Amino acid sequence: TSGILRVALRRAATCALWVFVYKLCAVDVVGVLTGSMEPTVIGRPERGDQVLMDRLAYVFDAPERFDAVFFRFPQNRAVTYLKRIVGLPGEQIVLKDGDLWLGDPDWFGDVDEGVARGKIRRLRKPEALQRALFDRFTVAEAPKDAPFDFARFDRLFDAPPATRARWTETADGALRGDGDEPPDRLPWARLKRPLTDFLPDPLAPAADPAAPAPGTGGAYSVGDAAFEALVRLPRGGAVHFRLDDPRTGERRTARFARDADGRGTATLTDASGGATAAAGPLPADGWARVRFEAVDGALRAFVDDVLVASAEAPGKAATSPPAGGVFLAATGGAEVRAPRVCRDLYWIPDGQTRFFVPSGAYLCLGDHPSESSDARLWRVTVVEETATGRRFEGDADGVRPGAARADGRNPRSHDDGSVEFVDRDNVRRVYSGDRELFTLGSYRAPYIPREALLGRAVAVVWPPERAGFVR
Q1: Per-residue pLDDT reduced to its tens digit, 85-128
Q2: Residue 187 dihedral angles phi and psi, to the nearest 5°
Q3: How far apart are CA 189 and CA 151, in angstroms?
Q4: Within the chain, what is the greatest distance between any pair of CA atoms?
Q5: Is there a contact between 262 and 286 (Cβ–Cβ < 8 Å)?
Q6: 322: closest CA among 254, 270, 256, 267?
Q7: Can you tell me the distance from the alpha carbon of 466 to that of 367, in angstroms, rounded to the nearest whole number?
Q8: Is residue 388 within 8 Å of 374, Cβ to Cβ?
Q9: I want to staple 210 with a disulfide (CB 3.0 to 4.6 A). Which of 155, 267, 402, 432 is the partner?
Q10: DSSP letter string over 44-66?
């Protein structure tokens, strides 16, 4: 028995050693403490997601734009952060109208002029990432397995009595749009919820999808969104989606229709800068899931997740900018159920909005900008000891390991008259008063050096109900 036990212990020790070496060199599991990447990754001091990190991701390959990466915070190297790469070495990155823009590195003029001259152009996210973001940033929806009746319609949409009278409940749990109005007189029903950067708390969802929920953000109007629904189109029937951007005055519409001969088409229009249209087939009969996307300067129409139409949106302001909102209409007996509206990630304009990324460094931002003290706001404070002349640099906000948010300015004064300063290496220095050090000032430091990158976020591994890959 003792011999078997010795063999078992030896093998267990060898296995543990290999697991330790593999964890040290190849992978690690990191707990996320801050909410800057929500809803992609939930970050809370006690209930944050545990995320698998691939330490070998950038040994042979260079980091790519939109990778979610772990790195040591340059202003306090004891702190590990998770953010998304949006700017690569040598690039000029601009945050404008909630989107990311890539500028020519040698263009230093006005941003709007650069856009007009083609020196600064909008960046578009990869399709898989864009779809994942739409799925997570849901503004309003009617469940697929519940009937879409007038009770649910009234919770989601505002419609004048004459418009509401155009709808009829069907026996199979849908609403049918009657009438045959021309395009300029469609019976639009408007979504009650405005499109803003508001994000409901993922850990405290509202019991009623139409009721207010706890959350963060909401100060900025979002113009990029997706509108989808299950539809059934008879001959001569059509379903219309409309997205009005209150910031720029852009009015974008999509029309999914079936003509008298039974041919299905999808038509896209940007009414603010001149019509642009494309067409694609629709299933001959039965239900189909159609989706209209207006995002990153592009219009796209999907039928059952297949792209059937696309167009570029000029992005010119209309003569009379619309009030903004999301609208639905149906005519000719078209049936609708399970409507869903999603918004895009919105890069808010608080803090720095134009970046010239140096060589060998990266620009990283959070997926939840209204909650993220990310590169837009990072600064370094420099102090000098009066007696020795030594200078120290540290995070201007005094972030410490384990802190969910900044806990005060750096240096900070205490009630007993002492002054505390935490440097980049998290060394805490306490002085008896202001006279023992001199604050030289602060400067912006938004970039992550290559050597500070620890690895790529691969998947959420805990808790089980949120497990899945990180796009």
Answers
A1: 999 999 999 999 899 999 999 999 999 999 989 999 999 999 99
A2: -80, 80
A3: 14
A4: 90
A5: no
A6: 270
A7: 17
A8: no
A9: 155
A10: -TTTPPEEEEETTTTTSS---TT
> Please, which residues bridge with residue 302 across strands?
291, 307
> Cβ contacts of residue 447 below 8 Å, gap of 6+?
74, 355, 357, 358, 361, 362, 363, 375
Asked if 72 and 95 count as a contact pair (C-beta separation under 8 A), the reply is: no
Q: How far is CA 314 from CA 88, 269, 333, 399, in A?
A: 27, 11, 33, 43
Instruction: Please tell me the total number of residues recorded for the chain in this structure.
Output: 471
In the block, tokens 């290496």 appear at: 425
Quickly count: other Cβ atoms within 10 Å of residue 150's Cβ: 13
The amino acid at 96: K
Please give the Cα distance from 250 to 270 (Å, whole number).
7
**DSSP 8-state secondary structure symbol assigned to residue 371:** G
First to last CA, the chain: 50
Ordered alpha helix ranges (H), 1-142: 2-25, 111-116, 127-136
Q: How far apart are CA 188 and CA 463, in angstroms?
A: 42
CA distance 37 to 373: 11
Q: What backbone torsions phi and psi does residue 328 show, to the nearest 5 degrees?
A: -135, 140
**Ramachandran angles phi, psi of 155, nearest 5°:** -75, -30
Q: Tokens 């979610």 identify what position?
A: 68
pLDDT digits (tens, 9 = 90+) for 381-430: 999 999 999 999 999 887 765 554 556 688 988 889 899 999 999 898 99
Cis peptide leading into residue 105 (ω within 30°):
no
Q: Whole-angstrom Cα distance, residue 349 to residue 95?
A: 7
Res. 13: pLDDT tops 60:
yes
Helix (H) or strand (E) holding 331: strand 325-331
Tokens standing for residue 443: 């400067």
d(CA 36, CA 43): 7
